[in-house]
Amino acid sequence: MVMGEFTQETDVAVIGGGPGGYAAAFRAADLGLDVILIDDGPRPGGVCLFRGCIPSKAFLHISELLHDTKIAKNMGLTFEKPSIDLDALRKWKNSVVDRLTNGLMKLSERRGVQFIQARARFEDSGTIRLQGSDVTHIKFKHAILASGSRPSTKRGIDFKEGGRVMDSTGALDIPEIPKRLLVVGGGYIALELGSVYASLGSETHVIVRSERLLRGADLDLVRPLQKKLEGLFAGIHFHTEITELKEQNDKVEVTFDGEIEPKSQSFDRVLVAVGREPNTEDLGLENTKVKINKRGFVEADDQQKTADEKIYAIGDVVGGAMLAHKAMKEGKVAAEVIAGKPSEYDVRALPAVVYTDPQVAWTGLTEEKAREDGVEIKVTRFPWKFAGRAITMEAPEGMTKMIIEASSGRLLGMGIVGRDAETLIAEGTLAVEMGALAEDVGLTVHAHPTLSETEGEAAEVFLGSSTHILPKT
Amino acid sequence: MSRSFKLPDLGEGIHEGEIISILVKVGDSVEEGAPIMEVETDKATVEIPSPFTGSIEAIKCEPGDIVHVGDALVIFSGDGAEAEEAPAGKKPEKEAERKPEEAERKPAETEEKKPEAKPEEKKEKVPAKAPEKREGPVPASPATRRLARELGVDLRDIPASGPEGLVTAEDVRSFAEGVKAKEKPAVTEPTEKEAPAEEREVSLALSPTGVAIPELPDFAKWGEVERIPVRSIRKATARQMALAWSQIPHVTSHDSIDVTKLEAFRQKHKAEVEAKGGKLSVTVFALKAAATALRAFPNFNATLDVKAGEIVRKKYYHIGVAAQTGEGLVVPVIRDVDRKSVIELSIELTELVERTRNRKVLIDEMRGGTFTITNVGPLGGGHFNPIINYPEVAIMGMGQARMQAVVINNDEGAHEIAPRLMMPISLTIDHRVLDGADAIAFVNKVKEVLQDPDELLMAMV
Amino acid sequence: MAKMTMVQALNLALRQQMEKDDSVVILGEDVGRDGGVFRVTDELLDKFGPERVIDTPLAESGIAGMSIGMAVYGLKPVCEIQFSGFSYFSFHQIESHASRMRWRSQGRFTVPMVLRCPYGGGVRALEHHSESREAFYAHIPGLKMVIPSGPRNARALLASAIQDPDPVIFFEGKALYRAFREEVPEEEETLPLGKSHLAREGKDLTMISYGAMMRPTMEAAEILKEKDGVEAEVIDLMTISPLDDELFTKSVKKTGRAVIVHEAPRSFGAGAEIISRIMEKSFFYLEAPIARVTGYDVVIPLFARENAYLPDAQRITRAARRILSS
User: How far apart are CA B109 and CA B163, in angstroms?
Assistant: First the structure.
C-alpha cells in the first residue's frame, strides 16, 4: 500500500489470538498495559474457536441429540430417521463461531487492545516484523508467544487441503458424510470426531497403535465409554497401524499391520488425529534468546518466562497438557507477571474433559499416576446405576471416583465418566485446589436428585456414611 | 531429618558476630557440647558448642562472614543419615516423634513420597521455623497461595492451623508479620533515612543523636580513596564513643602528680612482684588510688538512671583498665579492687591484659565496671580528655610521667626548683552527676595517695 | 476516551469538523475512495459524499489553487498533498496567493484553508518522501505552520487549524502516524495555534523541539535525569510560525541553557530563528552557547543511513551534557 516502514510501540505484543493469547491480552489491558494482539486470522479465537474446541462441541451436541432421539423409543417417543442438511449444519456451526469471535473482537476494542491481522516474526528480542498489515514493525517492552499447535504430521501423512485424508481441521468442515470412515488415533480428538461422524451415519472404524484408548485417563473411567463406543463404531482395533496409504479420486486404499482384519481395506475418508505439534517455525525465534527443547516445545518456567527476559510463552507452544484452559491460565499468569504481580502457574488440579457420550473427565491426580508415584491412596467409586438422576436420564453408564490421600483424607483427584462429566468435574477441581478433605465434600449437602450427588456419595463411601450404596470399609 | 543450628542470642544487645573459624567440616560426627566454631562479637571471641549430637550435613557460613542471631549456621542430619530410598507407602511421622522446638506450633503431618530428585533441588533455604522440610505441595487454597506470593513467604515455612496441615490465609498473615517483626533493628532510635535496615542500624549506632546527616561527597573526585569496612572492635568502639559523647556532658580536670617517690617504691618492689608472676606497674597503684577515692566520693562510682531520675551508687568497686590490642581498644574489668592486695592486683592485671591482647578475654570480663582507668603513659602523651565509659560517670586518664623542673618547698621552706617525675592526670566527669569541685576533690585525693607511698599505705582501701 | 493512533486521531478531527460545519471539504489525491494512502481520510467519502470528499487528479498546483479559490469563495477546504516532498508544485500558489490574499484585499478576503501533508523521515521511505522543509513555509508571512507531536494534540491542532480564518500548513510526521497510541477524548478538543506547550518541567536546561523529534527529546530528558540528576525542561513548539517565544524565553531565563532539536537540516532551519529570539530576549541569562541537534546539511539519506542522520536520544544527551558542563 504505502511506501515506508511503520513502527508501532507497545507495552505487550501478544503473538497468537487463541484462548491463551486473548486471555493474556485482555488481562494485560485490564491491568493498564498497552497491548497489541496479532493473529493471522481476521478475529481473535485461534484454533479453539475456528477449527477446534468450539466447532467440535457444536457438532457433539448434535451427536448427543441424535443419540437421544434414537433411545427415546424406549421411553415411548418415536422419531423418524432424521434428515441431515449438511449445508445448514455447517452454516449453523459457522454462526456459532462467528458469534463468539465477533464477541471477542468487541471485547478487544472495548478494552483498548489493538488487534492486527498479520503474520509475525521476531527480528530481535525487542522487535517484531509483521507481514500483511499497515504497521510493519512492532517495538515491544514484552512479548507473549501464544502461537499454539497444529495437527501432527509426524506419521509421515500428508494432508492435502480438501483431500480424502483429513486432519481435525478438515474433518470439522464435514465435507460429506462418508460411508466408510477410518479414524486413526485413540485420543480425545479421534474419539470425539469419530463419534460425530458415526452419529451422522458413517461406518466408523477406529485404529489405535497402543492397547487402550485415552491414555492419561484411568482405565476404569475409559471402560464404560469404550463399551458404548463399541456399539457406536463399527470397530475399535488396538495394536494396529497403517503401513500404506493411497489416496485415489473416490476412495483411500489402506494397508494395515496389527489386529485389524482384513489387512487391506478401502475407505471413503480417513481422519488422522494422532497428536498435535507446537508452532515454533517461521517465528524468527532464532533471532531471540528463546530456547526450544528436544521435543520441539518452547521452554518456559512457571512464571511463563522463556530464556529471553522480554519474551514469555504460554499454551500449546510450551507443551504440557495442550488444553485451552491451561493456556488461558498461563496467559493470565504471564500478563500479571509483566504487570509486576507475583503471579505463577501453581495449578494443583487441571481438569481434562473428553466430550464423547458418555463424557470422561478427570482432575488432579489420577489413580494411575498416584500409584506410579508411590502415593498411598484410597480410591472410592460411586457407580451411576445407583444414582436416581442418571436413571431418569437413561444415562446409567457412569461412575464417579475419588482419589484420596490415605494419611490425611485429603482429596487428591477425581474422575468421572458419564453425561455432563464436564460440569461435575468442577466441584472436584475446586475441592483439590482448596486442599479439601474428602470429609468436606462428603459433609456438603448435594441436591437430590442430581448427578452431582455422585460426588458427595463417593466421598461418603470413604467416610462410611453413604446412603445409596453400601458403605465399604 | 535435618536440623539447623542457628546463631543463639549471645548476650545483652549482641545481635551479630563475625565467624572467626569453623572447627568442623561436612561429614564430621560431633557430640553435643563439642565446640564447632568461633564467633567474634563486639570485642570478645566466643566458642560455640554443638547443640546436637549428629553429623554435619552442611555448613552455611565461612570465616569472615558476619552472621546475625537466628541465622542458620550449620545443618545437622539426624542420628545416622536418613535412608534415601524410602519404600513406597512409608508410614507418616507421628506427632510424638516431632522435636518440640516451637512449642506453640500445631502438628502438621507430612506425607513422605518416594523421593524424586526434586526435594534436594528445591530452594536451598532452610525453613526458619519448621525443623523438617515438607515434601510435595503444601495444602492451601489458591487465594492463600497468592497471598503467600504477595507477602513473599514460602508456604513450607508456615505452621499450619487448618485440618491435616492445611495452611490458611490467617496462618500466612501471622507468619509474615512475625518475619517482619524479627527484622526490626536492635537499636530503637528515631530513624531518619530510608537506607536498608542493616545500614541504617550501623549508621544509627555510630551517630545516635537523631541528627540528619548530609550526604558525603564522592571523595574519589579528588584523588584515590580506599574503603575499609568498620567492623568488630572498631565498630563497637565507635558506637560506644558516639553514644557516650552524645549523652554525657563531659568536663575534664587536668593536674600533675609528683610520682618521684612512688616510682622509687615501685622500683624497689618490682622484682619481688615479678617473681610472683605479676608486673608492678603504675596502673596497679592507680587502681588502688582510684578505689580509695571512689570510696570517699561515692557519686563517682555510680550511674545516672535518666528514666528513673536516680543516681545508682554501686557498693562494689570493679574498675576497668583500658587496653590497646592489635584490633583496637578493649576494657577488661578487675573486680573488687578494694578487696585485693597490690600483689594480687599486679598478677591479675598482668594476666588480664595479656589475655586481652590475645583476644582470649571473655565477654563477661568486660562487663560490670563502675569506673575506668586509661593509662596511655607507656606509650607517651600528656594531658588529654578521655571519654567516659558509658554508663559510668567518670574516667581517669594518665599520661607519661616525665622528669620536669618543678617548684617545691625545700627543707627550709623556701622555693626551689627541682627535677621531679611528674605524671599528668586527667579526670573527666559527667557534669549531670558531678561538679567541678567534686572533680578537683577526687583528683586531690588521688594525688595525695600517689605522691607518697606511705600515704597510700595508710589511706588505701 | 479511547486510545488511538495519530492517523485515527486526525480522522476523528476531520470527521467532527465536517459534521459540525458543512463548509468543510476535503480534497487531494486518493483521499476519497482509497481513504488516503495513510488512511487519514478513511471512510469520510462514505460518510460525507463526493461533493465534500474530492479525489483530485495528480496535480498539486491545482489542488492548492483550487483550495484557495474555494476558500475565498466561502468554503473551508482541507487539502492534502500526499507527501510534503510533492508540495513544491503548490508552493507558488501558497506563496503568491494564499498567503497574501488578506493583505492584497486589505482584509476583505481571507483564505481559511488547511494544507496537510505527511513530512519527515524515520520510515525508510523512498527519495522525496522524507524531508522536512517547514522552514520554507515558516518564512512566508501570512501563513501559519503547525506541526503536532502526538495523537491528542494532532487532533486538537487540526480542529483549530480548520477553524482558523487564515491559511495553515499542517505537517504530520509520518513516523508518528502509528508509532504509539494515546487517549483522545471523543468530545471536540482544540488547542490554540501560535502557542507552545510545556511538555516537561525542569530547572537545569531548556530543550525545545517539535514533531517526531519530541520523543527522542523526552527520552534524552529522562536519561539526563536518571544518569546525571539533571532536570530538563522540554517545550513542544506545536506551531512553528507564528513562533511562541514567550514560553521558551521564560524557560531559558530560568535555566540559562538551551538545546534545540529538529530533524530538518541545520542551516537556516527553525533552530536558527529560535536561537535568535533567545539571544534577543534573554541573552544575559545565558550560561552557555545554545546547542542545535539537527539533521545534517545534506539530502536525508535512504534506508541504511537514515538513523545516522536523524537526531536520537544519544545525540541529544551528548549535546545537553556539553552545554551543561561549559
Answer: 10
Put simply, the answer to whether A9 touches C123 (Cβ < 8 Å) is: no
Nearest to B355 by CA among B393, B392, B325: B325
Contacts of B335 (CB under 8 A, 6+ apart): B316, B318, B368
Instruction: Check B142 against A405: CB less than 8 A apart.
Output: no
Domain range list for chain C: 2-184, 197-325
**What torsion do the CA atoms of A193, A197, A198, A204 make, to the nearest 10 degrees?**
-80
User: Residues C293, C260: contact at Cβ < 8 Å?
Assistant: yes
| CATH superfamily membership of C2-184 | Thiamin diphosphate (ThDP)-binding fold, Pyr/PP domains (3.40.50.970)
C197-325: which CATH topology? Answer: Rossmann fold (3.40.50)
Contact C39 A4 (CB under 8 A): no
**Fold for domain A165-274?**
FAD/NAD(P)-binding domain (3.50.50)
CATH 3.50.50.60 fits A7-151+278-338, yes or no: yes
pLDDT (tens digit, 9 = 90+) per residue, B207-218? 656 667 788 888
DSSP string covering B114-178: PP-SHHHHS--PPPSS-SS---SPPP--HHHHHHHHHHT--GGGSPP-SGGGPPPHHHHHHHHHH
Domain boundaries, chain B: 192-212+231-247, 251-459
A-contacting chains (≥3 CB pairs under 8 Å): B, C
pLDDT bin (cut points 50, 70, 90) of residue B1 is low
Cβ–Cβ < 8 Å for B162, B168: yes
- Cα gap A306→A287, rounded to integer Å: 14
Q: Which of A427, A415, A421, A414 is nearest to A393 (CA)?
A: A421
A7-151+278-338 matches A352-463 in fold: no
- Closest residue of chain C to A10, computed from CA coordinates: C180
pLDDT computed for residue A84 by the predictor = 92
pLDDT, one tens digit per residue, over C150-194 is 999 999 999 999 999 999 999 999 999 999 999 999 999 999 999
Cell 473428553 belongs to which residue? Answer: A354
| Section B440-458 average pLDDT | 89
Residues of A in contact with B172 (CB under 8 A): none
A378 touches chain B (CB under 8 A): no
Please pick, among B15, B250, B383, B431, the residue that the annotation labels catalytic. Answer: B431
C-alpha cell at C64: 492548492
Phi/psi of residue A112, nearest 5 degrees: 75, 20
Size of chain A, expressed as the number of residues it contains: 473
The CATH architecture of the domain made up of B251-459 is: 2-Layer Sandwich (3.30)
The class level of CATH for A352-463 reads alpha beta
